[in-house]
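Q: How would the structure tokens look for this protein?
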Amino acid sequence: MDVIEANKIISAKAADSYDKLEPHFSSENKIKVKKILKNIRQKSGSKLLDLGCGTGFIINLAKDLFDEIHGIDISDEMLKKVDTSSSNIILYNCMVEKLPFENEYFDVVSAYAVLHHLENYEKALYEAFRVLKKNGYLYIGLEPNKNYFDLVAKYKEQKDSNYSEIVKKEILSICYAKEKIEKDYGIDGDIFNLSEYTKSFYSGFDAKEFQKIIKKIGFNKCEVFYEWYPGQGRILHQQSESDALIIDNYLQKLMPFSKCFYKYLKFIIIK
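A: Here is the predicted structure in token form.
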């Protein structure tokens, strides 16, 4: 079985419950991503391409911001879940590594929680570069931070320790992801690991190495942002947004020492 087939199997089985079980559909994350899309839209044009659109996470947030939205995915089951009631949305079942668009057509390309599913994500980046206009934006979000995933992996055998609930939750969610996916979706864990290729076999993305690839492809600028420290969602729900922000600001000031405390990477890239 190859990576593409594994992703098709996972998507088909997860489509019905994906929006309910995946944490990036939380209200606090939707607000955060919506702000990013608004900011990009103010600096760019009106045509958006969403790579690996899934059930429409980015599309739903962007449909009132962009005049023309195109969504790409390899899963019919996922695409059927996208709300296309808005007349500015067009969907395609095809691979992100080979896009059916002319050169320099889009103002913005987004890829949210997508690249770690690919065996060779560079191909998708080259395609994004090709279809983007000069000075166009590529927004990549929710990609696993290798610094963090490598750190947590060191504690794999300590899931039953006396650590705090937050720490134990992180160990379980990262080191025992295949077991969780088998429980939540009834999916074979090995197929799941194959479908999240870069996360499973490389522990995610190293920001500096990723920037080198972006430069090699020909992009003009690549900003890196570290997002979602462990327990941030709990603080937002059980305490306050201001408390969560205080911790985030403090950790950001500790960069580069605090890189390993953030689970995900965000990249804002300009052609």
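The two ends are 35 Å apart (CA to CA).

DSSP finds 14 helices and seven strands in the chain.

Upvote if useful.
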